[in-house]
Amino acid sequence: MPTDGVGDSTGDGASSVSAKFSYLAIPITASYLGIGSKSNMLELGGGPVIMNLSGSGFVESDDEKVAAGGSYTTLALTALAGYRHQPEDGGFVFRIGASPEKIFGAPGILPWGYMSLGAAF
C-alpha cells in the first residue's frame, strides 16, 4: 500500500533543501474481554506491529545537487490495557486505553494510547 507521506522544502535563492517522510504500521492484535460486567469490561491484549519507514531528501545549490534516502522495515510489540463499553444487545461502543509499544532495536518504550467509537450489531 503506497503512501504519499509528508514533506517540506525551503530555499534562499542560492540553495534549497527538501525532504519527504512516510510511515506505515500494520498492527496485528488480539484482546481478552473476560473481566467486568457484560457491557463494561477491562480489555487486555497485545501483538506484533509491522512498520515501514521511508524518507528522502535533496540539498541543491547553484553548482551541486546531493540526494539521500532509504527505507527501513522493522517489527514491534504492543500491549493493550483499557476500558471497553459494549452493550450486550448492540449499540454504541466506546474504547479507551494505553497501548505502549516496544520497537526491536530501539531504546525505550513508546507510550501510545488508543480510543475508538463505533457500533455493535
Radius of gyration: 21 Å
Query: How many individual domains?
Result: 1
The general outline is elongated
Strand content: over 45%
Largest sheet: 8 strands, antiparallel
Number of strands: 8
Order of helices and strands: EEEEEEEE
Give the % helix. Answer: under 10%
Q: State the separation between the terminal residues, measured CA to CA.
A: 30 Å
**Alpha-beta classification:** mainly beta
Let me know the average pLDDT: 88
Uncertain runs: none
| Count of separate DSSP helical elements | 0
How would you characterize the overall build of this protein?
The protein is mainly β and 121 residues long. The protein is built from no helices and eight strands. Strands 1, 2, 3, 4, 5, 6, 7 and 8 form an eight-stranded antiparallel beta sheet that branches. It is elongated, with a radius of gyration of 21 Å. The mean pLDDT is 88.
Task: Give me some keywords for this one.
single chain, eight-stranded antiparallel beta sheet, 8 strands, elongated
Please write out the topology:
Blueprint (H helix, E strand, L loop, with lengths): L5 E6 L3 E13 L2 E7 L3 E22 L3 E21 L5 E8 L2 E3 L9 E8 L1
Antiparallel strand pairs: 1-2, 2-4, 3-4, 4-5, 5-6, 5-7, 6-8
Short description:
Helices cover 0% and strands 73% of the residues.
